[in-house]
Design a protein that fits this description.
By secondary structure, the protein is mostly beta strands. The protein has 7 helices and 37 strands. Helices cover 12% and strands 36% of the residues.
Length: 618
């Protein structure tokens, strides 16, 4: 995705008067314009100028962080100065944050403020979870910006700026904020319109916290809601009101385009007597508010997301010369769709047989067309061999909705899980032979500014079977172990394992950001230190029966994790046959701009990851 988001500069001109030089038989007058014409017909449509003095325009920017892509937000500032809205409003996640290091927070806020200070017009801040999560972040916010929730009125429109992270944890509202909102709405009972801005779209989460209370307080007044956080655009309707979840203005995204709701944009809002008129200004043009509705999102989920449209990797155990992959088209909707595809080699293989596809996928059915590939030389590593460029289209309310994308055909080597005859869960690695260990990839993959060589941050790891379970081991080199008692993970030293024990086909599907297939388990081991004990955390939660031990070493720390077979069987749905694993290290050191990250293989949700990489078999 490019870092800019608008290719067109729109110029407005106000026409005050036109005076015909020729002899005139009639004249036309409307407001500030007076035109004389010499004929009964006129070379204009009408003179009802679109210049309501009560109307006004402002812009909204959305998530900049949670995986910041440098330069995008700064260019958005330059574009906004060209567009000249009356002011700009944010929906939060302005800095990376998530730290109790005051100096780091001040540095990040200074950098952000230096950008918005370039705006010709006012900028209204709003707190996201990256901006306002712990007491130190809250203190820095109050010192720099004052209230974390507030309101203002402009041209009889009430703007309500909420903080969806002040209830003691992320995605919660405090009672004090609810009380303030109730008072604010009572003191402003009948504005022309009410606009609600919040970072987290709690109405779209299983845990809505107090959102129902907020909607009850809003009552029957006309209002519109704007949020961010999900990095994917959705227009929804609740209680007859429009709710918008915005995409990104520089935050992490898979960038698959408009119909996926994944794009960089600013929202241009024109306030009229009938409410806000929404335009999404982005890299590939200007789209209206229906660029992605909740109905489109739900159909996309049922036809494309969570591995429904996928091309699982071909797994092999020794060498690869030729094989057959199956494109998986699972339509979980009640609507048929048309699927077209072109297959093309990436240079290391040839497509055998047909290289195109054009089929209809019926409702609630699975179609699995085959793709055969062969290579001239045997392959012994993980590689992308071919690409499938596809379009998917369906009819919705007499409109053709079309998606375009690509799937990569990969081959990945499965590794054997050897058995440990002797094992004791103590964090010591004496029983592990050197041949079982895998080193981290060369170089840093995250925040290279804080990386100072292998002595600063590096690791090796291993996996093996023991009796009735899976055992993981890791040895970390780290010249400074950093832990804190606040419990916030990103600014501490930790190593985490990503584990997928589902069926071979399911764990070989390529993933994208925020489009991860279910069944993945993450285990984060927070490093031991002199002051704080090690801790193992699970996401979504730590499975029952998982145990661990960790200890400090001369050069860093080491750890062992035991995962019972019953946990793997539960994920697999039957006795497990294999597992996909990945390991990453985060090293947080004082006075550095965020943690350094190293990896064994690229994160599965990244563009450059090879589908199916990291698979092991029993």
């Amino acid at each position: 995705m490019g870092s800019g988001f608008i290719r067109v500069v729109i110029c407005w001109a106000t026409l005050v008067s036109l005076n015909a030089q020729a002899h005139s038989d009639s004249s036309h007058t409307s407001g500030e314009i007076s035109i004389e014409s010499s004929a009964g017909q006129t070379p204009w449509t009408h003179l009802d100028f679109n210049n309501d003095p009560q109307a006004f325009q402002f812009a909204i920017v959305t998530d900049r962080t949670g995986g910041l892509r440098p330069g995008v937000f700064s260019q958005a500032v330059d574009k906004l100065n060209l567009l000249q809205p009356e002011f700009v409003v944010s929906v939060g996640d302005l800095i990376e944050g998530y730290t109790d290091n005051r100096a780091q927070l001040e540095t990040e806020w200074n950098e952000f403020d230096s950008m918005v200070q370039r705006l010709d017009m006012p900028f209204f801040y709003l707190a996201g979870n990256h901006d306002y999560t712990n007491p130190v972040m809250a203190d820095v916010w109050r010192e720099r910006y004052g209230d974390s929730y507030y309101h203002f009125t402009y041209r009889d429109v009430l703007f309500v700026m909420l903080n969806s992270n002040d209830g003691g944890k992320t995605h919660t509202f405090s009672q004090a904020q609810i009380d303030w909102l109730e008072t604010t709405l009572k003191e402003n009972p009948e504005p022309q319109w009410t606009l609600i801005f919040t970072h987290s779209p709690l109405w779209d989460r299983d845990e809505k916290d107090r959102w129902d209370e907020i909607e009850s307080l809003l009552g029957e007044r006309p209002y519109t809601v704007f949020a961010g956080h999900h990095h994917r655009y959705v227009k929804d309707q609740r209680h007859g009101r429009k709710y918008f979840t915005l995409a990104t203005t520089g935050g992490i995204t898979s960038g698959r385009g408009t119909r996926f709701g994944e794009f960089d944009h600013v929202v241009w809002v024109t306030m009229s007597e009938q409410g806000p008129i929404i335009a999404n200004m982005m890299l590939d043009g200007i789209w209206g508010e229906d660029v992605r509705t909740a109905e489109m999102r739900d159909l996309q989920t049922a036809m494309i997301d969570k591995g429904r449209l996928s091309l699982p990797a071909i797994l092999y155990r020794d060498k690869f010369k030729k094989g057959v992959a199956q494109l998986r088209l699972k339509n979980d909707s009640d609507t048929p769709y048309q699927f077209k595809a072109q297959y093309r080699s990436l240079g290391k293989a040839k497509i055998e047989g047909e290289n195109s596809l054009n089929i209809t996928v019926p409702p609630n059915e699975i179609v699995t067309p085959s793709i055969a590939v062969a290579t001239e030389r045997k392959i012994t590593d993980d590689q992308d061999l071919a690409q499938v460029d596809w379009t998917l289209s369906y009819q919705l309310n007499d409109e053709t909705i079309e998606y375009a994308g690509k799937e990569t055909l990969s081959v990945a080597r499965e590794r054997p899980l050897k058995s440990l005859r002797r094992f004791q869960l103590d964090g010591e690695l004496d029983e592990w032979s050197r041949q079982l260990f895998y080193p981290n990839a060369e170089g840093a993959f995250f925040n290279t500014e804080g990386f100072h060589g292998d002595a600063d941050a590096s690791f090796r790891w291993a996996a093996a079977r023991h009796q009735d379970g899976l055992v993981l081991a890791v040895e970390v080199v780290d010249d400074h172990l950093q832990r804190s008692a606040d419990g916030i993970v990103p600014q501490q030293d930790f190593v985490y394992f990503t584990l997928d024990a589902r069926t071979q086909v399911r764990r070989s599907i390529k993933q994208t950001y925020d489009n991860r297939v279910p069944g993945q388990q993450t285990l984060a081991l927070l490093a031991p230190s002199k002051a704080i004990e090690p801790e193992l955390r699970g996401d979504p939660e730590l499975p029952e029966g998982v145990d661990y031990a960790a200890r400090q070493t001369e050069k860093g720390y080491s750890a062992e994790i035991f995962i019972p077979e019953v946990v793997l069987d539960s994920i697999h749905g039957s006795p497990w046959t294999g597992v996909r694993l990945n390991v990453q290290l985060r090293d947080a050191d004082p006075n550095e701009p965020g943690p350094t990250g190293r990896q064994w293989m690229p994160s599965w949700g990244t563009e450059w990851a090879v589908g199916g990489s990291g698979n092991f078999y029993r």
